[in-house]
Amino acid sequence: xxxxxxxxxxxxxxxxxxxxxxxxxxxxxxxxxxxxxxxxxxxxxxxxxxxxxxxxxxxxxxxxxxxxxxxxxxxxxxxxxxxxxxxxxxxxxxxxxxxxxxxxxxxxxxxxxxxxxxxxxxxxxxxxxxxxxxxxxxxxxxxxxxxxxxxxxxxxxxxxxxxxxxxxxxxxxxxxxxxxxxxxxxxxxxxxxxxxxxxxxxxxxxxxxxxxxx
Length: 214
Known about the structure:
43% helix, 8 strands
């Protein structure tokens, strides 16, 4: 962490599965507040917890270079997700964030979804295996009605998101012609919407990656 404060060359750092814990994550967060070269940071499987997630979030409010953050399996919970969401409302560089398997639940999903009504840079969001249910799915659907930047969203292994919630998300996409979403995992109900969009793109001569839901 001390080296990151002075380093002027390193652009990618992977610390996954290193048991850095909350204390280590706090040190990394402090370094991110001043580092001006790092663009990709992988902290997955470090069991960082809610308190350290708050420190990382505070760093994201100040950092102006990081574009990708992998935060898989860190037990940040709903409160940690709320802190990350608050950071996303002001951060202007992060384009990809992986929050898979973090036990954020409906409460955390709502916070992240609301942040994406404001954030204009995030393109890829990973929410796999987060115990998200109908309430969280409803807020995600509400966000997808207005979000214009997200291109990939993963909601797999959120078993409480059933067909009814899937249809709600699909309808949200249908109501947002400006949506950039081209890959939606865990919501097969949206496939029909994407098929319609792909046909329309073909008719209009648009050359972009084919949209897919599964």
